[in-house]
Amino acid sequence: MAYYLSEINDRCRTDAAGFIAECDGIYASRLELAADRIMENMEKSPIVLLSGPSGSGKTTTALKICEVLEQRGVRTHSISMDNYFITVSPETTPRTPEGKYDFESPLCMDMELLNEHFSVLSEGGRILVPRYDFVHQCRDLEPSASLRLKKNEVAVFEGIHALNDSITLVHPEAFKLYISARSNILDDNGAVVFKGTWMRLMRRTVRDYLFRGTAAQQTLAHWANIRRGEKLYISPFKDKANLQFDSSFAYEVPVLNNTATDLFNAMPADTPRYSELQSILPAFERFEDVSPDLLAKDSLLREFIGGGKYLY
Asked: How far apart (Å, rounded) are the C-alpha atoms in residues 206 and 195?
């Protein structure tokens, strides 16, 4: 799927609110389809595995799918697989080719415990979901939740490695969903104006700056390893999914335009991958601006800019 710059700008100029509502409706229809498929699979498994690369909106999508299922009478539980990270250790934590800790690797996950918990839940047993302390990079002594699934309940496990063979080969009956903001924006001649991967970088840069105290140059410096991890550990498994869908929005560059442009413009020239910015920054100038105030409180983009109804 692709969007066209001329259509985006025209809609933003003439009826931005209507354009946003229309795009949100398309995303909502994808959520409904996911709920349909999950319910069809419930007799096989109460487990839903949701994967996608960084900046795809996995957390919000998981919460919104749960809302749709709840409206249909299915009780749901959304669980972040980040809770299943293994305590960091110089001896066992995998490293990148540069020698740094490789937090994108599936070897950072406690796959054995995850598979055990999926089996217990599927058999009607109770699990204690672990809690991970990201400040100290270790497993907390106290669990984050106690969970047992009754009839007509599902658990949505969301994380970048949810479709890894270490899980799906053990639990092929689980429903598998892959999402990614992957649509390019084209000009009228079909040339790419804005890449789908740039959308995810833009989302993550804004979120990291606003809510994680991370300077834009730090996000960009990490982006190379994030992309490396995607190509090695996430994208190769997307075809395992029972359903894939695009979590991008045609209006999102205009909405994030001002904030992202300011952050990227402020980066020093010695920032790693600075040359990539030289391609992205001129592209921003080709888009109209749209006020983020027009976004609904439950918009997926609120995961990255704040002001939404969900707690992350």
From this structure: 17
Q: Name the strand (E) or helix (H) holding 211.
A: helix 196-211
For 101, the token pair is 């800790």
DSSP string, 46-82: SEEEEE--TTS-HHHHHHHHHHHHHHTT-EEEEEEGG
| Tally of CB atoms within 10 A around 40 | 11
Exposure string of 62-91, with b = 16+ CB inside 10 Å and e = fewer, is bbbbbbbbeeeebebbbbbbbbbbbeeeee
By DSSP bridging, strand 184-186 and strand 192-194 are antiparallel
Of 225, 119, 232, give the one whose Cα is nearest residue 165.
Answer: 232
Question: Where are the extended beta strands (E) located within 23-152?
Answer: 47-51, 75-80, 126-129, 132-133, 138-139, 145-148
Contact 17, 125 (CB under 8 A): no
| CA–CA distance, 195 with 265 (Å, rounded to integer) | 19
What is the reported pTM? 0.94
CA 41/CA 39 separation, integer angstroms: 5
* pLDDT tens, residue by residue, 165-220: 999 999 999 999 999 999 999 999 999 999 999 999 999 999 999 998 888 888 88
Tell me phi and psi for residue 145, to 5 degrees: -165, 155
Backbone angles phi, psi at 176, to 5 degrees: -120, 130
Q: Tokens for 40? A: 């069809």
